[in-house]
Amino acid sequence: MTGSEINFIERIKNNKIVLAILFLVLYVAAYVYLRIYIYEPSANKVSYKNNNFYVFGLNIPAHLDFCGEKIPSNDMGIKKDLEKEFFNDTYWKAHSTILFNRAQRWFPVIEPILKEEGVPNDFKYLAVIESHLSNVTSPAGASGFWQLVPSSAYGYGLEVSSSIDERYNVEKATHAACAHIKDAYAVFKNWTLAAAAYNRGIGGIQNALKTQNTDNYYDLMLNSETGSFVYRLLAFKTLLSSPSHFGIKNRLGKRGQKINFKSFKFDSSITSLSHFAKHIGTTVKTIKAFNPWILGNDILNPAKKKYEIKIPKNSKADYSAYMADLSHELITEEADAASSLSTAAVTDTSHVPEKVIYYAVKVDEPLSNLATFFKISVDDLKKWNNLGDNTNAVRGQTLTIYYNKK
Predict the structure, then answer these.
(1) Which residues share a beta bridge with 54?
(2) What is the sign of the dihedral through the CA atoms of 54, 57, 58 and 63?
(3) Which end of the chain has the least Cβ crowding within 10 Å, N or C?
(4) Cβ contact 113:78 at 8 Å
């Protein structure tokens, strides 16, 4: 073989190596591009960790939005805030069944009003994080499903007095909340900032935007409550619209039974609620249960204001769940503490667990396997999760585990 032939063969080999390297580089670049910009990330198989709180098998949704406004996904600070709200809110993990049941009852009431008012449907989750869809009153004086303070209630046409408090009227309070939200949107032209303003006030958000020279909620440095407000909205939106993301079976398939009401409209005074109740064939207890905005035993109405009292047409049905949501409840610091410790209360009170795990079950498997893995007893696993005689964990469950391993 001549020298020129040998050189030709060597050049071919060198070209093949160069082409192979070039192909490898292009392949890796294409793979990285597709993983980052095209395909959603696969489920996290390791864990999220935040101090003494662990969540296994969960991840932040790849695409998040609030009212159609996209959430920035390339900022580590935002991801950290999202993780905190998604994986460190023990209330809804311990009370998710209550939240799902309330959503079934009250979303059908709230959603049509939002649509009528031209407010995006995502704002129904604002009522979830404000009151957990119940007529609670905060120590600061905010009341009702939408946690309106008296000044805001007055400003949006609600009556608040010793005998009438329309913040406890779910329909009227929802219309008032919509007016507040629309006023904020008119200022900011942005639904995310309008949501933040519901918590901080329009003026507060305006001052923060001006002082920090930005027009974006996600760039703002705010107090802890307002700074986490939208991230909490996103967490509850994901929980209630996509529960499977948290390993929870979808509990919103069928909406709550609609109550058919008899309506009594009037513009005069009612000097005795008991006499009025007898006249319409019901009791004062029933009137107040379904019209919790009536605080006294009379309705004095010299201004001829129009009121509407509603009672169920079927007086024999079980409305206990609706009545519980509508009843007035004062939130106290002790109640907040009891709520946050409610999951721990099922454990031995002589020992406080070091870590709490919410484990999303990926496949059907024996409880004994999980007990062995976490070094706990099967009996404890059943007790913590109210599993009775079950011997298997079912795909889609989220199990609470008190984990003492260092």
Answers:
(1) 49, 357
(2) positive
(3) C
(4) no
Query: Do 279 and 188 sit in the same domain of this protein?
Result: no
Question: Where does 133-246 show beta strands of DSSP type E?
Answer: 136-137
Instruction: Give the predicted TM-score (pTM) of the model.
Output: 0.67
Burial 323-339 (b: 16+ CB within 10 A, else e): eebbeeeebeeeeeeee
Q: Which amino acid is at 97?
A: T
Q: Residue 189 domain-assigned?
A: yes
Q: Give the H or E element holding residue 148.
A: none
Residue 241 and residue 272 in one domain: no
CATH of the domain at 351: 3.10.350
Residues 109, 191, single domain; the answer is: yes
Q: What range defines the domain where residue 286 resides? A: 261-316
pLDDT tens sequence across 12-36: 566 667 677 777 777 777 766 665 5
pLDDT tens-digit readout, 268-279: 999 999 999 999
Distance CA 162, CA 326 (A): 18
350 and 303 within one domain:
no
The CATH number of residue 241's host domain is: 1.10.530.10
Is 369 within the bounds of a domain?
yes
- pLDDT band for position 213 (cuts 50, 70, 90): very high
